[in-house]
Structure formats: C-alpha cells, structure tokens
C-alpha cells in the first residue's frame, strides 16, 4: 500500500530519484526473471565448436524477461482500465506485476538453495582467451551504441533533440509512449489516428512509456531499452557466426558488416564527381544519403534503420535466439551420411526427419515469437521465413510446425484483440522496388542497391559444405519474400525483410574474409578488397548519419510546454483532437489522440486517411455552422486546435466559423495556438 500511495500522491518532479530507481528495478527484475525463463533454451551445445554461453544468456535474459514482464504489466493495466474503470491503470499494473515478479523470483531462489543448485548454473564460458576478446568487442559495442542512441535522441535543459534522419519515425513512437506515460491508452489506440483500433506494433513504445511513468526521463527510457535490444541482438548474431565458423574473427567482422552496408552507390558517386572535378567538395559538403535505386536516399539499407526503428532490434533479438536454438535441428539434418538427392529425399520422407526432437523447446520458442508480434511484426515474419528454410533440411520438422503454429496462434490472438477487421492485405507484388519488374531488372537492382553482397553469395556457395548451404538458403527466404509478396499499403516496408536477411547473411561474408586472411599476400589483398567493397558505401552513410543529426540538423520540442501539460491534464482517452497535419511537436508529446495527425504514419499502417483528411478539410474550411456541427458530431471530435498560418491538405485553415460556433478553452501565451471545445461539459 505504501508503494500505491507513493506513486499516486508524489509529483513526478519531486520523485525523480525514486522514479529512476523504480525504472532500474523494473529492468533488473526483468533480467533476473528472464534468466530463469530462458535457461531451458540455452544449454551446452554437444558440438566441436562451443561458444561462451554468457553471451547467449545475457541477451536471452534481457529479451525474454522484458517480453514477459512488459506483457504482464500491459495485461493487468488493461484489465484495471477497461474492466475496473480506473484512471491510473499503470499504477496497478506495475505494483501487482513487480510485487508478484519479486515473489516468484524469491521462491525460485529458495527452491534452488534447498536443492543446492547454484543460481548461475554451469560454466558460462569455455574459451577464456576468446572470452577476453569478446569482452573487449562487446564493451566497445556498448560504448558505440550508447553514443549513437543518445546522439540522435536526447533531452537537454528541458528540450528534446531529435536528428533529422530519424525524427520522422520518432513522431508516432513518442506520441505512443506519451499516450501511456501521461495518459490512459487502454484499450490502445493509434495517436495519429485516434478513436479507432491500433494496427501498429506498439509494445516497445509501451515499454518505454511505462519506464517514463516509473520515473525515467523519456530519452533514458527509450534509449536504455534500445541499447539493450541492439547490443543483445549483436551478441547473439556474432555468437551465431562463431558457432557456424568456429572463429572469433568471423563474429567481429559480422558486426562490422552489419553496421556498414554493402552497395554500389559510393563507387558510382565517386566516379560521377571525379568526372565533374568536385569530388572532395561533394564528399565534404554532402549531408544526404546517396543512392541510385528507388528511395535508397531514405537510408533504407544502412545503420539509420536501427536508429529510427528501435523495435526492430528487439524483435531480431528474440528471432536470433530462436534461430540459434534451432541450429541443433538443422545440424542434425545435415549431418547424415547420405549424399546428394538421396539425402534430400530422406529429409522429406524419413521418420527421423519429422519426429520431434524437443517439443517443450518448440512450444517455448513459438510462444516467444508469438508474443513478439506486437513488438515488431516484420521481425517475426522474417524469423518464421528463415525457420521455414531451415525446416526443409532439418530433422524434427514436427517441432518447426509446433513453433510456427504456436507463434501464428498468439499473433492471431493479438490481432483479434487489437485490430478491427483484417490485420494485413497480402497480395502478389513482384519485383519490390526494382524499376524493371523482370528477373534481369531484379538482378540489376540488387547490384546497385547491395553491390556484391547478394549476387556474390552465388560464388560463395561453391565453397560451402552442406550445413552452411542449408543455412544460407534459410537466410535468403526473407529476401525472396520481399520481392514476391506485399502485406501493407506501402511497398517500401518490405525493406525490413531484406535488412533482416542482410544481418544473418553477413556471417558468410565474414567467413570468406577471415578465411582469406592467411599467410599469402594475395589472399590478404583480396580480403582487404572485399572489406572495401562491402563497407565503403556504409561507411559514407555513417558519415552522413553523423552530419545529418548534428548541430543544426535536429528537430526540437519543448518538453516543459504549457500546451503539452494542458492537453495531458484536460483531454482523456475518450477525447479526439483535430489538429493540422502535425508530426512531432508539443501537441503530439501530450499523448492525446489526434483525429488525423501526419497522414503517412496512419496510411502506412493501414488506416483510411483519405476519408479523415477530407473531413478535416471540410471542418477547417466550413462556411455553414450546421454543416460544421454535423461533421464534428459525426466524427466524434471533442476539441479543435487552430494554429496561425496552418494548413491541411494544402488548404488554409480558417478559424472564424469555428470560434463563433464553439467555446475557446485554451490559448497559448503567444496567441499562436487556440483550442476550442465542441461539446458541453454535461
């Protein structure tokens, strides 16, 4: 009860230190519970190449713990809001779950103590020499990732700074976070399309919002979980490389290739500016991503993706954990003595190929994937596609079916709870963003977009054994999917599947580079050439990330705005606010539901923004009071915001009739913004 009273009565500013501690306690408890929940999955491998399990345990504990604890808080908070009708559901959600989690952990530790079973069972590292190298690698990664996350998103002196290459994604994300930390977004709505269902995977934003509610400053809440997610994913990815190749070098190089993408853009850019004679000036002054394929200059393929789509890394952490576990199944299938076509037939027709190897693990992995659907749906789909590729060559296909079935069931269950109607509109769409929708057109596109990365894998296949070929095939499935099917209104969204595959496929290029680095000079030169070809475009992209988000290239929002506070205090979850086409500003930071915010955010998620945009224009340009009242009532808009000089759909917003019809309830000190209430208090 003391914790209830503390959270209820103390002002946020007055409990900052205590709140920070609550946020840290939340994360520590998640890690400890996640360690216990994931222990069953991370067992000592029975193979020649043994990894240092600590680098599997840590990300598994983080991902599993965050996933389970956060879903628990959300479900309890949802119940108290929707069923119980309380105005502060996160209070009950956090108290009940944190107390229950602490009790569960205490019971587990007591049982272990009675059985003389150590908390950290077994050795967490086998190779001390490699462990020291890995410790340095992950330490450097931690510093680098932390720096980059705070470089593009931070608060200083009450002002939020968001880099220009990333703020577009942060706009809906921060609005969603604030809808939980400052509001009561249960049942959950999409802030840029309020009053409807939520079609966007929002749980990562809920986590950040809940951490802010517990007292962590918004930038710390968002960045800490982002750092943990990306670092955890890269730990698992590099350990996957070590397990496949048996070399620390391959794990380290995989990480480098992950950050600095392959592509032909840089070399073409250099060639063009050499011809015009302004190469040095162009390289030094340019602040935009370079690219010669459709929307490549958006930063679709470089590290910027993981800076603006933070939830993708968390989804991939869970996916990579599942893939790592299923390597046992794949290795069992590829280790049989049969040759060629006979071996393949046996993987389809034999009892061993289908018989379950570990049903319990299969169920748990399916649960983890299924619960990740509303953290990042693309990651889950990409992971299932990779597992489909693995299953073809594996033993224990029944387990794959169980994992996939469980994942699909829980994903389907969530969509039925959160989404009205269909969650996806799947249809055939050949060619992705290639200008020529032919096989040759796709080949040319892959070259200009990815350089030697994808096409060069055809050559690497000839140097691989059966196991590696099977893995490569599985990792290619998301790429094939991206060029064949469309599941959202925006085809650009398919870039995520290629990005997902890129991370895993980097393992094989790392293997090629490390294998070449031997005593012979020509092999070393070839390895260096490969590194240059595979990273030059990505390195220059990274330079642009630094430039494009530095001083003078940031969007700022006043976090102590009176407008933000007024909206958060006076508008509830039942209210719907009509605004101009707002992206990220003091209004969106209040966490209130906008009738139609920046249209792209809602359109790309599957909402009918054309309808609402037309109605918004009708309201802002109305000349008849009865029409104005009728549209506002029909659309259930409770507040209208007018800003001097604002537009909607390039139509100037008019205030005269709105001010005559409805009561003005708020005006900013500079009189730039006015808010009108459309309904009576009763």
Number of strands: 11
Share of β-strand residues? 5-15%
- Main β-sheet, spatial strand arrangement: 6-7-11-10
Structural class: mainly alpha
Proportion of residues in helical segments: 55-70%
Integer-rounded radius of gyration: 26 Å
- The 3D shape can be described as globular
Oligomeric nature of the chains: single chain
First CA to last CA: what distance?
A: 35 Å
- Tally of individual helices: 28
Question: Topology, please?
Answer:
Blueprint: H1 2-9, H2 16-38, H3 54-83, H4 89-114, H5 128-152, E1 153-156, E2 159-163, H6 167-181, H7 203-213, H8 218-245, H9 248-259, H10 265-276, H11 279-285, H12 304-308, H13 310-334, H14 340-349, H15 351-354, H16 359-371, H17 377-393, H18 397-418, E3 427-428, H19 439-450, H20 457-460, H21 466-482, E4 485-486, H22 495-516, H23 521-548, E5 554-558, H24 562-570, E6 577-578, H25 599-605, H26 609-620, H27 625-634, E7 639-643, E8 647-648, E9 651-652, H28 656-661, E10 663-667, E11 673-677
Parallel strand pairs: 6-7
Antiparallel strand pairs: 1-2, 2-5, 3-4, 7-11, 8-9, 10-11
Helix pairs in contact: 2-3, 2-4, 3-4, 3-8, 3-13, 5-8, 6-7, 7-8, 8-9, 8-13, 8-22, 9-22, 10-11, 13-17, 16-18, 17-21, 17-22, 21-22, 22-23
Short description:
The protein has 682 residues and is mainly alpha-helical. It has helices at 2-9, 16-38, 54-83, 89-114, 128-152, 167-181, 203-213, 218-245, 248-259, 265-276, 279-285, 304-308, 310-334, 340-349, 351-354, 359-371, 377-393, 397-418, 439-450, 457-460, 466-482, 495-516, 521-548, 562-570, 599-605, 609-620, 625-634, 656-661; strands at residues 153-156, 159-163, 427-428, 485-486, 554-558, 577-578, 639-643, 647-648, 651-652, 663-667, 673-677.
